[in-house]
Automatic annotation (TrEMBL):
Pfam families tied to this protein: 7tm_1
Primary location group: membrane
Topology of the protein relative to the lipid bilayer: Multi-pass membrane protein
Protein name as it appears in the record: G-protein coupled receptors family 1 profile domain-containing protein
Length: 357
């Protein structure tokens, strides 16, 4: 019987075997991973991601004033970014020379954890952009989406992210076809890396388009409202809007673009070897998006800021948290007042957008 066409699989090899096959020099990469400055930067980034997103998640859970569709999506984003922070610490601490001791199953688990977390975070950003676009275009303070639909949307985000993260374990890898191995992720097939990069770039494109449409809509709205408001006030509102949208899109694109382009080049088999040396820094840049997300999403929301103060007061003064929340909520203005929801409609649109991310 002719066995020449039977593929040879390398399930029992260590991850080091595939890294050597791809031409990766782990000794050179180890110099970055073991430098004191890089280690401190990784530790601070990971801990900050976990702390800030944990704080946002806690605020949403304990404050009933935040139990609205947008905040449920924001809470899910905090969960995904929390997972990013944990997986970022795990994958970075087990990189470099440590990779030589990792089995294929351990490598797939480590990489699948970060891939699932990042994909869930990215898709959740798109879900928030869709929710904000719907809310603003219908001139509503809160989305009309029911809690059931929000839950289904959140579940769908996680199911898709988990399926994408588990695809290599279920067979979309190069263990039986060494010629198709990726260079950035040596146990993954280039077709998988290419698919992930294209899908992620598509999601990024959709997010950019949605926020651009929001910006154009409000700019046109401001022109119609000019005759009802002062010119300086209208101009200042539009300028503030542009600054916020630029901050939203700027951080998003800046953090994600280098990594997605690297994966795209790898999938096309055109990745420069010099880029592989700085792969860890590119991953850190992506993780930084999970660091800035809780800041950008909550810095203009007075209810969230008030809840943050209550949490800190609880730790600092050792008083019961419910007493603090009751005090602040009784003395705070109505939620619509926090947003500046005025009759001209434009201020409501602007402040709602300011919370969009």
């Amino acid at each position: 019987m002719d066995n020449t066409n039977v593929p040879v699989c390398y399930y029992n090899q260590t991850a080091m075997f595939f890294y050597n096959l791809s031409g990766r020099d782990l000794i050179v990469e180890e110099q970055h991973y073991r430098s004191v400055g890089f280690f401190i930067g990784v530790l601070l980034t990971g801990v900050s991601i976990i702390f800030l997103n944990g704080l946002v998640l806690t605020a949403i859970v304990i404050n009933r004033r935040l139990h609205y569709p947008f905040y449920y999506l924001l809470g899910n984003l905090a969960v995904t970014d929390l997972c990013v922070g944990i997986s970022y610490l795990v994958i970075t601490c087990l990189s470099g020379v440590w990779t030589s001791t990792v089995s294929t199953s351990q490598w797939f688990f480590r990489q699948g954890l970060i891939d699932t977390s990042l994909m869930a975070s990215l898709m959740n950003l798109m879900a928030i952009a869709l929710e904000r676009q719907q809310t603003i275009f219908t001139m509503q303070l809160h989305s009309k989406m029911t809690n059931q639909r929000i839950i289904l949307l959140i579940v769908a985000v996680w199911i898709m992210a988990i399926l994408i993260g588990l695809s290599p374990v279920m067979g979309w890898n190069c263990l039986c076809d060494l010629s198709s191995c990726s260079e950035t992720l040596p146990l993954f097939s280039r077709s998988y890396v290419l698919t992930i990069s294209i899908l992620s770039l598509l999601i990024m494109f959709i997010v950019v388009i949605l926020y651009t449409c929001i910006c154009v809509y409000v700019w046109k709205k401001s022109r119609r409202m000019t005759e009802h408001t002062s010119r300086d006030q209208s101009k200042g509102t539009v300028v503030s809007l542009m600054n916020t949208v630029l901050l939203i899109l700027g951080c998003f694109v800046l953090c994600w673009t280098p990594a997605l382009l690297l994966l795209l080049l790898d999938g096309l088999h055109h990745v420069p070897q010099k880029l592989l040396v700085v792969e860890s820094f590119i991953l850190t840049l992506v993780a930084c998006n999970s660091l800035v997300n809780p800041i950008i999403y909550t810095y203009r929301d007075q209810d969230v800021r008030t809840t943050f103060k209550c949490i800190f007061c609880c730790f600092c003064q050792q008083q019961h948290l419910s007493n603090h929340l009751g005090y602040h909520c009784n003395t705070s203005q109505h939620f619509s007042d926090h947003l500046g929801y005025h009759s001209n409609g434009l201020a409501a649109t602007w402040d709602t957008i300011a919370m969009a991310k």
